[in-house]
Amino acid sequence: MTKLLAEEESDTSALGRAERLRPSRELLGIAVCGYSRDPDAGPEVGEVRALFVSSRRWRGGVGRELMEAALADLRERGFAQATLWTLAANERANGFYEAHGFRPDGTERTEEAWAHLPQLRYRRDLA
Q1: What are the angstrom distances between the C-alpha of 96 and each of 32, 51, 53, 106, 123?
Q2: What is the reported pLDDT for 114?
Q3: Prediction pTM value
């Protein structure tokens, strides 16, 4: 079962979080989405902020379910586009994002929290 939960951030903007659980309540994966935190994003841009699937469940449909739930949540909240950040060298994840309609939009960054590894921003329309 995929559950979509709403949480409140400190600035009162709602975050959507989808969880995929087994009947035993084992967490198989989680997705978090909300407004885009990028300074160049307009109010029409939402962001898939996190997507995690247990490595034991890769290629089993859990990631697809979570991504679909996150994108549906962003659409329902009126966002026209979705972005996400990914490590440039993460070919497995980047292939997954591309299979879900995301494409690199040309924006790159590095952050100390990620050991200054190159990151790419991916974007897609939600229509």
Answers
A1: 16, 11, 12, 18, 13
A2: 87
A3: 0.81
